[in-house]
Specification:
globular, two-stranded antiparallel sheet, 25 helices, about 5% strand, mainly alpha
């Protein structure tokens, strides 16, 4: 493969879109440039406005206490003489209502999503950032659930980023024990049917039905590890859900609540687990992480993301083999991906998601990321609001899900707005080779040269087939 073509693939397929000068920085060694990014600790996203999940949950707990206190004060406040208690001048008219949880969480979400965009737009290790976002989508949580609104960014910073260059097992454990995942999939509500908590509730004649919740167990099997055809049964799901009872949240962090845990040994996927505490669930997760079905499922998703919608089987098997032999060592898996010839011989096969498209534009044009919602509004406009995939399956990863006529028209309109705003600052004809390298076509070169204005030329560059794909 010609070197200018390979450098463009490294920056645009494995990275987040080239910045000016990035292709030259590879010095003709695009694979080595990618592998070098896997060395050292993962980058940390920092900003003074960011809070830990523990702090966010503590704030929410305090807010709930304030709301209960305010509600009690409103109920106890004497009504003014002759006034209707429900009227503006009636009972508790001067009692200020505390914020709702969603109102508390929304600024946290904006801070997190803005910090994520800023990091993606400026990082000099874009391969690691793409991998981070791949895993965040693989282990998806969605802010459509209010409980996750203030935690999604912290989840990515605490359970994904620190482990993206470690082992899959450690990543899996961190994800499944994070408060965001436990809340999103309702495991904090799961109670063993013969646990001490259930027995107490039964004696007291509790009206609310108490029992296990299978959401977390099912999604771990289906979406996080084995895949839908991974060889598990409904009985495995139910038993694994019992294993995970007691995995809950306390003081803003993961805690094991023994009184909620279904006691006794459990058999999952044909293996008996005699442990009686949180180590039972951890043992199951470690064994699932080592299954051949998990290796194949993860390899397929990586190959689909980085190579093609229908990845070649030889590439999948190469990656799966590296996963198995290394016991899930992720840098080893990534190197097998980079060394797959198919990743370098199928140019421009993936249509960029809206997120990819926006981030690559920011990188290409060195656009600033401010603290307003303007940058985040672009993700909503183009159909991929940050941290909002809408389901535990995450955002889809096939071109057909993103390249419809309506979606393309929105990109053209957005690109035109960008061109109008900053087109005079850039010479698109000069910029194009530094962004697209050997993938830049003669037709696009000619279109840029014939553009009526700098704004039009920039719009044409951002909507060219080469820029829309990776």
């Amino acid at each position: 493969m010609q070197e200018p073509f390979a450098t463009a693939i490294a920056a645009n397929r494995f990275g987040l879109g080239a910045m000016p000068g990035e292709l030259d920085a590879m010095r003709g060694q695009p694979r080595e440039w990618l592998i070098a990014q896997l060395k050292g600790a993962p980058p940390v996203v920092t900003d003074s406005s960011l809070r830990s999940s523990s702090d966010v949950l503590s704030e929410a707990l305090e807010l709930r206490r304030e709301r209960r206190a305010a509600a009690g004060a409103a109920a106890d406040a004497p009504a003014e003489s002759g006034a209707d208690p429900s009227s503006p001048g009636g009972r508790a008219a001067n009692i200020q209502k505390p914020l709702k949880v969603a109102q508390l969480y929304r600024p946290r979400y904006i801070d997190e999503a803005t910090a994520r965009l800023r990091h993606a737009a400026t990082t000099d290790r874009p391969f690691v950032e793409r991998l981070t976002q791949f895993w965040a989508n693989h282990f998806a949580v969605s802010i459509d659930k209010v409980a996750v609104l203030g935690l999604a960014g912290a989840f990515e910073r605490e359970a994904i980023r620190p482990y993206v260059l470690g082992s899959f097992t450690d990543l899996l454990l961190a994800v499944e024990q994070h408060p965001a995942m436990l809340l999103y999939l309702d495991n904090s509500l799961s109670v063993g049917p013969t646990s001490r908590a259930a027995q107490v509730a039964q004696r007291r004649g509790a009206e609310r039905k108490i029992g296990i919740n299978e959401n977390l167990a099912r999604e771990i099997f289906e979406l996080h590890t084995l895949g839908v055809n991974g060889g598990y049964t409904q009985q495995d799901v139910t038993t694994f859900a019992e294993v995970l009872t007691g995995w809950s949240i306390g003081d803003g962090a993961f805690t094991f609540r023994e009184r909620l845990h279904e006691p006794g040994a459990k058999t999952v996927l044909g293996k008996r687990y005699p442990q009686s505490d949180q180590s039972q669930g951890e043992a199951v997760l470690r064994d699932i992480a080592a299954k051949p079905a998990t290796a194949h499922f993860i390899a397929t998703k990586l190959a689909r993301h980085f190579i093609a919608d229908d990845p070649p089987s030889v590439a999948v098997e190469r990656i799966a083999k590296a996963f198995t032999k290394s016991h899930g060592d992720l840098p080893t898996v990534y190197r097998a991906l980079v060394d797959s010839n198919a990743a370098w011989s199928a140019p421009l096969s993936k249509f960029k998601t809206p997120s990819d498209y926006i981030v690559s534009t920011y990188r290409a044009l060195d656009l600033p990321v401010d603290r307003t919602r303007r940058g985040l509004a672009s993700f909503e406009l183009l159909g991929q609001r940050t941290y909002s995939p809408g389901s535990p399956a995450g955002w889809p990863d096939r071109s057909a899900d993103w390249d419809g006529a309506s979606a393309l028209m929105k990109r053209i309109e957005w690109a035109d707005a960008v061109g109008q705003r900053v087109g005079t600052r850039h010479n698109a004809a000069d910029l194009a080779p530094s962004l697209l390298g050997g993938t830049l076509s003669a037709d696009t070169r000619m279109a840029l040269a014939r553009a009526a204005s700098g704004s039009q030329a920039l719009t044409l560059l951002l909507t060219s087939p080469e820029f829309l794909r990776r």
